[in-house]
What does this fold into?
Amino acid sequence: MWRTATVVGMQYETATARTITLAVRDWPGHVAGQHVDVRLTAPDGYSAVRSYSIASAPSSDRRIQITVERLPNGEVSPYLTQEVMVGDELELRGPIGGWFVWLSDQTEPIQLVAGGSGIVPLMAMIRSRASAGSAAAFRLLYSVREPEAVFYRDELAALSNQGNSVAVTYAYTRVTPRDWPRPAGRIDAALIATGTWPSSLRPTSYVCGPTSLVEHASDLLIAAGHDRERIRTERFGATGEQKRVQV
Amino acid sequence: MAIISRGFSGRRSAADAKLPPGQYLTTEFPVLSAGPTPHISLDRWEFTIDDGSNVLKRWDWKSFRELVTETITVDLHCVTRWSKFGTSWEGVSLDVLLAGIRTGLDYAMFRSYGDYTTNLPLKDVMNKQAWIAFKYDRADLAPVHGGPARLLVPHLYLWKSAKWVKGMTLMPHDKPGFWESLGYHMYGDPWREQRYSDE
It folds into this structure.
């Protein structure tokens, strides 16, 4: 069933990524980690659909946020990051997905590992934890190309500085901030050892990003002693336009 | 009545005519899996067919690779909306594996290393419709795409083509597998756009 969503807010996260706030009159609610399908239709009836992770925590205001990264050869993401305006209507269906989700009654430690825009569904989990008043122990390992590519930078910084909150470790793969102690490079065993929960705590891990990051990081987690049954993954599909899932 | 997206024209091509509804064409081979990729050594690999209580047939890698194979060129359709045309595989037809089995059971649950499952009507994996594929594009199937061997059922959405497959259990009634228990359609026909359980 396609629902009508009205664009009620927009904000740039980086030079190429934009968060869009959508008001959906008949939104049934969602849980952190789920996604929506967004449909665009041209005047002649041609339509294109892509999936986007929900970035916002569950709430009762019938609003959701998605964060969309513009892809050079994308069909839908350039429209959503450059064309769409407040007041426009879009069609969406969802929420979709029942596997890569975090529920606020989960009490075990949670290890989040994000690559690039794979942060989006994990941010929904972090926000859901906060809005539910959960005390679950969260850590985030966030791999990004360069400091300018970090989504939700101020919110993550604020979280890191609070007690009982979410510890964030960054891995910069191409360019680091000035005076950064670790040279640019992808996640390695040393960073897994210092930047993630030890396997003895038996955390549930959520790993989201491009296939190469997901394969590499989940192999490192398994090598560090984590049970594969407690590692959930979500890989980008073709063209990276969709966030998801799983076949 | 669809809402028209002001200023949207989209990208289309003649190839779109061959696409099931709601799909777009890619030349990449995206990877989508629910968990880490299992790495299965060939000396531990096996494929079994059982009826829920007894193993009816069993192959190790050596005996499996002695079976007659076919090369297949098919289009793939993923529920996440990408389609890929003209993919080339080598595999053993399920007709070969099921030859001689007469149980009267009409459904199958395919089981994978890594605990993935997916359900299919038996008639959908017979009569040249399904294979256990071990080569893609003439090379050994990479673990990330389901190697050493995966089910290939190209007329249904790709989640039915279970990666890292290790067996099938014949069943009297249909039962949901992994994604089918998580909101995805029991059957998954891309031409009827059977993506989710409410369709």
Q: What stands out?
A: Chain B has one domain: 21-30+45-192.
